[in-house]
Each structure stands twice: as C-alpha cells, then as structure tokens.
Amino acid sequence: MDANLKREIILDNYQNPQNKGLPKDDSYKQVNSRNESCVDNITVGAKIVTGKIEDIKFDGDACAICTSCSSVMTKALKGKTVEEAEIIIDNFDRMINEKPYNEDILGELNIYNEVYKQPSRKKCALLPMDAVKKIIDEE
Prior knowledge:
By secondary structure, the protein is an alpha+beta fold. The protein has one domain: Sufe protein. Chain: A. It contains five helices and three strands. Strands 1-2-3 form a three-stranded antiparallel beta sheet, with helices on one face. Helix 2 packs parallel to helix 5 and helix 3 packs antiparallel against helix 5. The chain is globular and about 40 Å long. 37% of the residues are buried.
C-alpha cells in the first residue's frame, strides 16, 4: 500500500475515530491500558455475547498511532467471534514485532506494517489490542 494512502487513513482515523465513546452499559467489559512512556491512556469496552463481539468501543487520550489503531481495530473486530478476534490480534502482534504473519487476515490493519521502524511506536499500536486480549481472557 502506498505510504501516502497509509498516512491518510491513519490521520482520518485519528481525527475522526470510529467507535469512540464508551456506553454506560454493564454488559460491556472494560479494560484500561496505558503507556507509561507517553500520553496514551485508553479504555476499551466490548460486549461479547455467546462467543461473538457484538460491539466494541474505546475512549481516552492517546497519540495518533494509538487512537487511529483503536479506531481501525474496533472496525476489524466488531462482529467477529472471539476465536476470529484472537487470530487477528495474534497476526497484528506478529506484524508489529516483525514476525511472519498473514496480511490477508488483517485487512485495513495492514496500514501499521511499518510501525516496527519506530520502536517507540510499537507500544502505541499494541495498546488497544492488549486491552482486547485482557477482555477476552476474562470471558
């Protein structure tokens, strides 16, 4: 994918994030994740019913990478089974950490395929996925 298009998608998801705002609904499990080395502090909330992510949202203050990744991640995981979400999360983690991964599984999340070039940004990209992992582990 063209570098300019990647930047455009990241910037759009930062300025106009999808699924931002947590509902006041006890059926959403919420996990807060923060990056101690920067401003990133987000909470992810997911409503999981019979093994399927019916809805997923996030809120908080974070950098462009973390906010945009939270937006793209929620779009990618909404409607997926927990098993499908785990596969996406694993492949995303592998991509960020320069390990073999299946890009076909990641869809739009592939825009972060060069984050590894800035090691300080890896945590920014992984923060929302780490929160989802914790939610799934609590299920």
